[in-house]
């Protein structure tokens, strides 16, 4: 696949990664948050190195944005790798109880570990961590049962650490840890761009929109995703299911109908509609068994 180039600054990433490791060192429990539409692209290859032997809960947020069928397939895939993700919708507060219970359950092994190292027992310290825009702040607010962090604010890891006391003997860091996007893998970078996890300055919006149409026309061959292709065809009045020439021809035709022929504006509209769930539940990644 000819994936559009997505730019980033390596120096910026190295600095952000260093800061993140410093924060991780101060906690006992890492609540890693990923995006249900792209559970692999929102996982970072260095994460295991950063979290070392700390307790780790894998949360997949935005469960409302994919189908129950997709969630089932992913569960089978993760379980086969001995991983047990907890799915949630932090916007509506679904799945939060299970995350709190899992954090509470991890207390005893963290306490035992501290005791075995001759350390005092204290409330365990937890950090939510993940790529930009996966829903970390929304999750913190749900876990804390109050608004402690602005859900759209760009939270940094540099300011003073402030802990929120939870009822269960857990102190939760009020700022999320932001993982810098891993853009070496251009396929993941494209998925992150589609889900708005990378600033628009880093990519050419029209080529990303063309890739999106390519993905939809491929998904169209899968009967479980058929609804999305129909929904998109109906919404814009340009058929993506049959008589489909090429992704750029589709964008041109849609642009002539909706944005006075402006393909850039049409690309923007298409991606915003996807991100705002106007196009149905579309998973950009599905499990691949090898
Ligand atoms: N549909 C849906 N939207 C969500 C969910 N969780 C968060 N959002 C929305 O996604 C947007 C981003 O959420 P945040 O909580 O700010 O994401 P974040 O990971 O803290 O983002 P950064 O601060 O950029 O790192 C907000 O508009 C939230 O309302 C979810 O489970 N489902």
TrEMBL record:
Molecular function terms from GO: GTP binding; GTPase activity
Keywords, in A-Z order: Cytoplasm, GTP-binding, Nucleotide-binding
Gene3D superfamilies membership: 1.10.1580.10, P-loop containing nucleotide triphosphate hydrolases
Cellular location(s): Cytoplasm
Superkingdom to which the source organism belongs: Bacteria
Database matches in InterPro entries: GTP-bd, GTP-bd_ortho_bundle_sf, GTP-bd_ribosome_bgen, GTPase_MTG1, P-loop_NTPase
Binding site for GTP: 61-64, 177
Listed GO biological process terms: translation
Pfam families given in the database record: MMR_HSR1
One GO CC term on file: cytoplasm
SUPFAM superfamilies named in the record: P-loop containing nucleoside triphosphate hydrolases
CDD domains, per database record: YlqF (cd01856)
Keyword Acetylation: no
Residue ranges occupied by any G domain in the UniProt entry: 128-185
Function as written in the Swiss-Prot or TrEMBL entry: Required for a late step of 50S ribosomal subunit assembly. Has GTPase activity.
PANTHER family reported in the protein's UniProt record: DAR GTPASE 3, CHLOROPLASTIC (PTHR45782:SF5), MITOCHONDRIAL RIBOSOME-ASSOCIATED GTPASE 1 (PTHR45782)
Family affiliation: Belongs to the TRAFAC class YlqF/YawG GTPase family. MTG1 subfamily.
Descriptive protein name: Ribosome biogenesis GTPase A
């Amino acid at each position: 696949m000819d994936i559009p180039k997505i730019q980033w600054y390596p120096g910026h990433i190295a600095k952000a990664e260093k800061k993140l490791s410093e924060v991780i060192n101060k906690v006992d429990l890492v609540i890693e948050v990923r995006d249900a539409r792209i559970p692999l692209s929102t996982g970072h290859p260095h994460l295991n190195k950063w979290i070392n032997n700390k307790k780790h809960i894998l949360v997949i947020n935005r469960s409302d944005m994919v189908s129950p069928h997709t969630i089932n397939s992913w569960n089978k895939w993760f379980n086969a790798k001995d991983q047990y993700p907890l799915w949630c919708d932090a916007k509506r507060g679904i799945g939060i109880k299970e995350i709190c219970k899992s954090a509470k359950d991890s207390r005893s092994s963290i306490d035992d570990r501290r005791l075995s190292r001759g350390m005092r027992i204290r409330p365990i310290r937890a950090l939510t961590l993940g790529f930009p825009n996966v829903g970390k702040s929304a999750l913190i607010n749900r876990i804390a049962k109050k608004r402690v962090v602005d859900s759209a604010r760009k939270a940094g890891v540099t300011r003073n650490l402030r802990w929120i006391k939870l009822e269960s003997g857990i102190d939760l860091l009020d700022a999320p840890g932001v993982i810098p996007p891993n853009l070496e893998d251009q396929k993941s970078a494209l998925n992150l761009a589609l889900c708005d996890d990378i600033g628009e300055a880093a990519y050419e919006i029209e080529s990303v929109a063309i890739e999106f149409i390519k993905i939809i026309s491929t998904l169209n061959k899968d009967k479980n995703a058929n609804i999305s292709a129909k929904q998109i065809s109906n919404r814009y009045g340009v058929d993506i299911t049959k008589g489909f020439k090429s992704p750029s021809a589709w964008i041109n035709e849609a642009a002539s109908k909706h944005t006075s022929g402006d393909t850039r504006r049409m690309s923007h509209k298409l991606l915003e509609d996807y991100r705002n769930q106007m196009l149905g539940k579309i998973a950009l990644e599905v499990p691949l068994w090898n």
